[in-house]
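fyi for ur records
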Amino acid sequence: MSSCCERRFPVCADDIDVNVDNFNTTALPLTPNPTTNAKVLVRVATVNINHALTDSIVIPEGFYSIKGISRRLVLTQCYIVPTAVEAPDNAQLFVEGYILKNVQYATPSADQNPADPCEDCLVMRNDYRDLTAKINFNFSVPIDLDANIVTPVTETERAILKDCMKPCDKGTMSESDCERLFSQEVVLQEPFSCELDRYTINEAVINKTSCSLTNEDLFDTVVEKLNLNLVISIFQLRPVTI
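which gave:
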């Protein structure tokens, strides 16, 4: 087994001994059921998701106007959890990510005289600036899957009879406290994978002025009311015969 996939012990207990004896091993051919000889990636669901959120970006120096906003969506998690074996078409989709948002704005240059309130100023010099912010989002939605869901782990524990009964109503009968029989069967599930087909961002941008900003003619907060639409395809490897 590759050590890069299996976690190593972070510490080692040198005072505990582990002894193993291996015996003769046999291997028998097994015909899979159903009979297959290949695996292909099958689309088991396509989900259209709408997620609403509101974000605000504070620009402390203030700005006169927003010149442009560019956006790029990044997913950091797309995970599927089946909810029940009895209802294999039901699952929960967990999505996390962020919108990388670049805001370009104009703010008055510092080396200018204050405007005379009694005169109409004809020219104002601006500095063109920009900032990039991460707008995080996370949500979970129920989905329907046309997928192969395996039976969960089954475990059986059997106790050994300990009969110490004796004549004249003496002794005891119970289960042994020093031995047990265990049986465990685990069937491995093919994992699901996600693919982002497309996304749409629709938002309203509102410029606001907070009470702490001394210049009432400038804004210092960009508020965005945003609807995020994602189309995600979900795949699973499935045995086939070719």
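The chain is about 0% helix and 60% strand. thats all i got for now
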